[in-house]
Design goal:
Order of helices and strands: HHH
Radius of gyration: 21 Å
Number of strands: 0
Strand content: under 5%
Largest sheet: none
Length: about 80
C-alpha cells in the first residue's frame, strides 16, 4: 500500500511539473519582442564585427557567437529562423 501511494504521489508531481512547464512556456511566448529590438540591433553589430568564433584575449580559447546569434534570431523572430 505504501509503494502504491508513493507512485501515485510521484505521478501527480510529474504531471504537475509538466503542466507548470507548458503554462510558463505559453506565458513567456506571449511577451512582445518589441522591447528587445534595439538590444538585438546593437548585439548584431557586435556579432558582425567580431565574427562567429572570435579569439579570446586570454589564453587559447574561442568564443561561441554563433549560438548567441542563433538564440537572438530565435527570440526576435518568435521561434522561426530566417536567414
Amino acid at each position: 500500500m505504501g509503494k502504491l501511494n508513493a507512485v501515485t504521489k510521484t505521478m501527480i508531481m510529474l504531471i504537475s511539473c509538466v503542466a507548470v512547464f507548458w503554462i510558463a512556456l505559453a506565458v513567456v511566448y506571449c511577451i512582445p519582442t518589441v522591447a528587445m529590438e534595439e538590444n538585438i540591433r546593437i548585439s548584431k553589430e557586435f556579432l558582425d564585427k567580431e565574427g562567429l568564433y572570435p579569439d579570446s584575449y586570454v589564453g587559447n580559447q574561442k568564443f561561441d557567437n554563433f549560438t548567441v546569434y542563433w538564440m537572438l534570431n530565435e527570440a526576435s523572430q518568435g521561434g522561426v529562423i530566417h536567414s
